Amino acid sequence: MRILVCGGAGYIGSHMSLALAECGHTVEVVDDLSTGHAAAVRWGTLHRGDLGDAAFIGPLLRRIQPDAVMHFAARSLVGESVADPALYYRNNVAATLTLLEAMRATVPRPFVFSSTAAVYGEPQCVPIDENHACAPINPYGVTKHTVERALADYWRAYRLPSVSLRYFNAAGAEAQARIGESHAPETHLIPRVLKSALDGGGPLTVFGDDYPTADGTCIRDYVHVEDLCQAHLLALERLCAQPSHEVFNLGNGRGYSVREVLQATAEVVGRPVAHRVGPRRAGDPAVLVADSGRAREILGWRPRRTDLSAIVDSAWRWHRRPAF
Ligand SMILES: NC(=O)c1ccc[n+]([C@@H]2O[C@H](COP(=O)([O-])OP(=O)(O)OC[C@H]3O[C@@H](n4cnc5c(N)ncnc54)[C@H](O)[C@@H]3O)[C@@H](O)[C@H]2O)c1
Predict the structure, then answer these.
(1) Mutation test residue for ligand 1: of 4, 12, 166, 183, the one with most atoms within 8 Å of CB
(2) Domain boundary residue among 234, 250, 266?
(3) How far away, in angstroms, is 159 Cα from ligand 1 center?
(4) How much of the chain exceeds pLDDT 90, in percent?
(5) Which atom of ligand 1 is least distant from the CA of 34?
(6) Which atom of ligand 1 is nearest to the CA of 33?
(7) Beta carbon of 11 within 6 Å of any ligand 1 atom
(8) Atom of ligand 1 nearest to the CA of 76
(9) How far apart are CA 283 and CA 168, in angstroms?
(10) What is the CATH number of the domain that holds 27?
(11) For residue 315, is pLDDT > 90?
(12) CATH at residue 201
């Protein structure tokens, strides 16, 4: 199949392009390189442009006629979304609607959407399953939830089939470390810990060690990027066989604390990671862990790289080499 990967120059989109190419699919990447890297587009053709530009995306879709679209392109920094919500509504909502309009103007094709655990907001219970109320607490989560709702409506009204995949924390890198996570600024814990280890101990702060968890630090759900890609392939297969609109959580199956990440990193890099304990950050729940039972049951998804050391090790092999 010919798959359009929107945001294919980014962290997860570039891994998806590799996974699709390995399955024999033809990959077409749309990316404006606002946060991505041209060098990460190695398994497809890069069409540089903004999804929000109807004069760019419409003709492109007509020309390449993709069999399906995977949509990773978004801004995804919670703090930035609070400081500049207009950027998020414009880029994550308006640009996605422009893309969907262009798709509606051609034949509706399966659409796989990168959503997030941020749609849930403060967890009322853990692990979080898809029936948990969606009450996002920042503009980033609201924009993702808004697109999810649009996709449900587009399926009902226009029969545009879609799957929303709610990732928890994507982590790790592909086995040969040709691509990996490279955000600026980097806000995700594992790459920040690794960078700190690499720089000989930057100012890494653990935000609070007085949470009601076994070691007092926050627990998060780290899912290997290659496992995420596997779930996308399964979701695509299902959409092609049974068009509909569905939502799935994608998580590891268990959570790991900040201290466990520091410990696993120390073991992988062979030295302790310098850090200090600071106060809690506002809006950080103690535990955020997915119940991915629905993806397991319906998609037959089996995450295989769930061990924290293996996740950190794959990320370390990427981070210790020169980045893009
Ligand atoms: N990384 C995570 O842990 C995580 C967790 C939950 C959800 N997500 C979601 O997964 C998706 C991918 O995340 P990522 O970490 O790979 O991000 P990323 O920033 O590495 O990749 C996003 C890509 O989209 C491109 N892009 C953004 N806006 C665009 C536009 N208007 N037109 C064209 N290209 C555009 C960027 O240049 C970049 O290459 C995002 O939608 C994000 O919200 C990520």
Answers:
(1) 12
(2) 250
(3) 26
(4) 91
(5) 37
(6) 37
(7) yes
(8) 43
(9) 16
(10) 3.40.50.720
(11) yes
(12) 3.90.25.10
CB of 169 within 6 A of ligand 1: the answer is: yes
- The pLDDT of residue 254 is above 70: yes
What per-residue confidence (pLDDT) applies to 200? 63
How wide is the angle at C-alpha 161 spanned by C-alphas 134 and 35, nearest 5°?
65
Residue whose C-alpha is closest to residue 89's, from 139, 51, 150: 139
Contact 275, 259 (CB under 8 A): no
pLDDT-derived band at 107, boundaries 50, 70, 90: confident
What's the whole-number average pLDDT of the chain?
96
- Pocket lining: 14 vs ligand 1, CB cutoff 6 Å: no
Question: Is residue 30 within 6 Å of ligand 1 at its C-beta?
Answer: yes
Q: Is 36 in the pocket of ligand 1 (CB under 6 A)?
A: yes
Number of domains into which the chain is organized: 2
Atom of ligand 1 nearest to the CA of 51: 32
Nearest CA to ligand 1 atom 1: 170
Sign of dihedral through CA atoms 88, 100, 179, 207?
A: positive
Whether 324 is in a domain gets the answer no
Same domain, 296 and 238: no
Record the pTM.
0.97
Q: Which two tokens stand for residue 202?
A: 């930057």
Rg for the chain, CA atoms, rounded: 19
Final residue of a domain: which of 205, 232, 250?
250
User: What tokens does 136 get?
Assistant: 């996002």
Query: What single letter denotes the amino acid at residue 64?
Result: I
